[in-house]
């Protein structure tokens, strides 16, 4: 028996809605990364995009446990000498909570050519409303 390798057009894509209210950021991001990659499907193939679309609502209500709000944060470098920038999660969640989820999910995806394709299938919204009702997304409890 040969190993099954999925083709990109063979795997049906579904839409899921996840409510981030009261969910820890890391656990939420890990579950989202699994769905975006398609690892929850039996047809999973590592080099093919077999994942589903994910809509995250109520991004402003995601939580961080312990002292991570002040101690941890988002680091980036401007490519200039001494250009290491640090934004604490408290400030990031106040101004751009959707970006905090996107950064966490991006870090949990493989660092290859498929990562940008996976990230395009992630839609994050600050409040409870989203414009994707036409896709008939399923509510996914995490």
The gyration radius over C-alpha positions equals: 17 Å
The arrangement of helices and strands along the chain is EHEHEEHHHEE
Looking at CATH, the homologous superfamily of the domain at 15-63 and 96-139 is Ribosomal protein L13
Outline type: globular
Low-confidence stretches: none
N-to-C CA distance:
36 Å
Strand order of the largest sheet: 5-2-1-6
Beta strand count: 6
CATH topology of the domain at 15-63 and 96-139: Ribosomal Protein L13p, Chain: A
* Mean pLDDT across every amino acid position: 96
Explain this structure.
By secondary structure, the protein is α/β, with parallel strands linked by helices. It has a domain of 93 residues: Ribosomal Protein L13p, Chain: A, CATH 3.90.1180. 30% of the residues lie in helices and 18% in strands. The chain is built from five helices and six strands, in the order βαβαββαααββ. The chain has a four-stranded parallel beta sheet with strand order 5-2-1-6. The protein has a two-stranded antiparallel ribbon with strand order 3-4. The mean pLDDT is 96. Part of the 50S ribosomal subunit. This protein is one of the early assembly proteins of the 50S ribosomal subunit, although it is not seen to bind rRNA by itself. It is important during the early stages of 50S assembly. Belongs to the universal ribosomal protein uL13 family. GO terms for molecular function: mRNA binding; structural constituent of ribosome.
């Amino acid at each position: 028996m040969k190993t099954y390798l999925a083709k990109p057009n063979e795997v049906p894509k579904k839409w899921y809605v996840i409510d981030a209210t009261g969910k820890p950021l890391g656990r939420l991001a890990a579950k989202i990364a699994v769905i975006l990659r398609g690892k929850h499907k039996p047809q999973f193939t590592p080099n093919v995009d077999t994942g589903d679309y994910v809509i995250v609502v109520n991004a402003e209500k995601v939580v961080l446990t312990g002292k991570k709000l002040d101690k941890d944060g988002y680091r980036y470098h401007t490519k200039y000498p001494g250009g290491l920038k640090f934004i604490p999660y408290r400030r990031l969640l106040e101004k751009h909570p959707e970006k905090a989820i996107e950064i966490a999910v991006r870090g949990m995806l493989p660092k290859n050519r498929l990562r940008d394709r996976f990230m395009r299938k992630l839609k994050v919204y600050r409040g409870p409303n989203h414009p994707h009702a036409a896709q008939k997304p399923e509510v996914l409890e995490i």
